Protein 1
Amino acid sequence: MSEATLLLKATGLNLKRRHKQVLTDINLELHAGQILTLIGPNGCGKSTLIRVLLGLESIDSGSVWHRKALTVGYMPQHLQLEPRLPLTVLGFLRLARGARDSAIHGWIQRLGIQLLTDQDIQDLSGGEWQRVLLARALLLKPDLLVLDEPVQGVDVQGQHELYRLIPTLRDELGCGVLMVSHDLHLVMAATDEVICMNGHICCSGHPDHVSGSEAYQQLFGQRTAPIAHYTHHHDHQHCLDGHIDHDQTAETSQP
Ligand SMILES: Nc1ncnc2c1ncn2[C@@H]1O[C@H](COP(=O)(O)OP(=O)(O)OP(=O)(O)O)[C@@H](O)[C@H]1O
């Protein structure tokens, strides 16, 4: 990918918290139009890496480069709000920098949260809150959309909808997407590149490549078996004269 589309680049990131080495020699690049997903077991450093990339946490060594004037829409894993704060969903969305009511109502419709507009944010369910946070991130018209476990608390139907929506948003906004997810089945189909981490980067690349790698199998073991992403194993050959030769045997069938 070209330098012109580069949004963010991390080089040699290292970070220790108390006595634990949380990040070790992390290198990555994210380009406009790319969906990059971080996966890995609990505590492997995914959220910490996101916060470091966004400049919310300091590092011991390494560097993070951002494109100039990069606008980031961040959907955090946790957002602590003052519990006594009386604020409706609409009021909360109006706090987004530069957000106009027309845009707010557009995203409210798009994300199917019309019935929540006047509801107090303290009364939202986990899945409802996730949608509201996504709306807030999108209101910023981000060059980079950062989603830290976007489907936590979202029902199965909602998870499918959200993972279908992410590539559409990427296409419409032309943004890059950096995502953390535990939903291996769904995320593998909705991402261009996966980084599988456990403090350091164990493996990375296209989902097909990563899910077949030894490091991935060691981290996720049996759970990797039914990954539901599309893989086409070509079981025939197209000859120059247009003839199809079926003598080639298929390795495996697609899921
Ligand atoms: N301020 C801190 N002090 C000590 N340890 C910390 C601190 N912040 C993070 N850690 C540790 O760093 C590790 C990485 O945490 P992080 O939240 O990045 O993991 P994660 O991969 O996002 O996990 P999960 O999948 O459970 O959300 C964890 O072991 C955590 O306990």
Note: The chain is about 30% helix and 25% strand.
Protein 2
Amino acid sequence: MAPTTTHVSRWCSVEYPYTLHFFVVFLERNLLLQHQSRRPCESCHGVNSTSSILLTRTAGTAVTFKSEQAKLYSKATLIDCRAQYSADWGDYISFAQHLRDRADADGSDLLVVDTGDRVEGNGLYDASNPKGKYTFDIFKEQQIDIITSGNHELYLKNSSDNEYYETVPNFKDNYIASNLDIYNPEDGKLQPLAPRYRKFTTKNQGIRIVAFGFLFDFKGNANNTVVQEVEDTIKEQWFQDAIRDKDVDLFVVAGHVPVRDSKEYDAIYKAIRDVTWDIPIAFLGGHTHIRDTHVFGKKAVGLESGRYMETIGFMSVSGLSHKKKDGTVEAEKSLTFDRRYIDNNLFSLYHHSGKNDTTFSTEHGKNVSAAIHSARKELKLDKTFGCAPQDYWLNRAPYPHNDSILTWLETEVFPTTHPASSPSKQPPQLVITNSGALRFDIFRGPFTIDTTFLVSPFTSGFRKLKDVPYSVASQVLKLLNNEGPILLPALLETAAQHGDLGGFSAHHLSQLAPPDPPISAATWRQSIFADATADQQILSSTPDSEDKDLVPGYTTHDDLSSTSPGDDTAHAPIRFYDVPNCIGASIALDPDTPPETVELVYNEFIQQWVLLALRYLGLEYNSSDTEPAMDGRSLTDVLSDWVGEHWGCENGENGGEGEEGD
Ligand SMILES: Nc1ccn([C@@H]2O[C@H](COP(=O)(O)O)[C@@H](O)[C@H]2O)c(=O)n1
């Protein structure tokens, strides 16, 4: 079914005078195509909606939506927010093919780069047994020239082993692991997950590229992988030799690393510039979920392309030196970098590829979309547990607030989630979870199998400590939220002094809260600290008259904004709110007449933090003192069980029992 549009939006086209193009798509768990956008620039098209939703990777675009419907643009679906980023992996394959063809025709080159986080956060990956049963085969259909690992591939042994067994062989030498080793699952020996770097020459112009693939200094990986700190890696001989290669026209540093304020990429930039002052460098990053372009120096630019496959990042470089067919080298001339952030919807993809609904989808792309559709059907991802009576936001509502997913969790879900084993004997409990365990919003309407993984994909269960004095347990939440008598950095100091909290480091400071909203830190911090009135003016979705027709979405400010807009479609801005690191609920107890002791229940992912807080408060507990809680269920299970028990669907609202229509 073809998309339909009701309005014309304004687009900024990708410019083609450039001779080398990169696509970087940052999947970040959501893998398959989701959102579509409506946005404008100068001559684009888009859809109009006054809803303030946007920037969401819709809970289950690929899922709650029948796959064809997901691509249908109508005002109704846009208002409902589900079509915003709904192009899928098959569409991405068609799109890349059209741009490759164009590059071949005009003698330029196109490289497709993937900077990690291909797992967790979407039913297509999470709901299968084993996880990823369908996704590896789907991903491999895209021709990716440089591919790296994110942190999500490494939380669990099983997923990094999958990289070893599936993704690395699927992409052969294009998978690069500059600072990542794995214990070989067969012989137990430590080895690089993939080659440390790659040297190759582009097909059409003969641009000689040395490419690296880094992961930020991640510490939360399972113990079957080793992430070497970037600062140590760049001292190694292989790296020092690679950056001294004289027959290079461009260094490409790809990876799951932020491009701005990044100690890792700053160190790599310095290391390269220490030995060569002028070979251009293209950094392609990820992890912080934002659209961003950072100018490192005159000939070095970095691009980050958002989150959840909402964005296809596009970097163009022209004027590079290159080796001609006759063996002579054409010198660099007027080197220029540019970038575009492409909203991942069919309208955008048609626009940038110069195709339309009858010419866009290639056979290959269609087959991949069909494979997604069939896998979703097999997994019954549209099976509905219940229907959300309203939207619940992670960052787009203040906390606490009736529209906040965190408030919903602590006031409704936890207080009525009882262990099935002893429903009538509920002991007094304090339940704590990190807000980072929640990844996305809930939209009014069907809450499906897919929704559960979009909202909270992690397999971590809950643990509990019994008989903790209430006077102590009740202070843990405050400490974790930096509201207690000690701040988190000082808590880490305490950990360091004890020297026994294995693996704890400053990195763990960012482990509790969800990632910041997908806008640049500067804009985001401004929104937090501005006074309420200014705030409203700056970031509420109340567009000025010129913006009235804009759909809310990305409004990116980056280092090239003064020259040209980065977003390919103009949006009205969205307002985001800060949220606490952790939230908590009191169960079966009245804080005015508290019991002597309580069970302290918490998400297993934050166990080290909880034990550390207790230690600071004077109680020594170890992990061996803890027990499984919530009947061994993960937050994902708790959510789906609760929705099944509490949220009914009105007639016809549940969209069926997981049978996707065609
Ligand atoms: N078992 C887990 C694993 C991770 N988290 C949260 O996810 C954050 C990392 O996600 P990014 O997309 O930013 O890489 C991490 O800091 C935790 O907050 C979790 O809750 N449980």
Note: The longest strand covers residues 461-469.
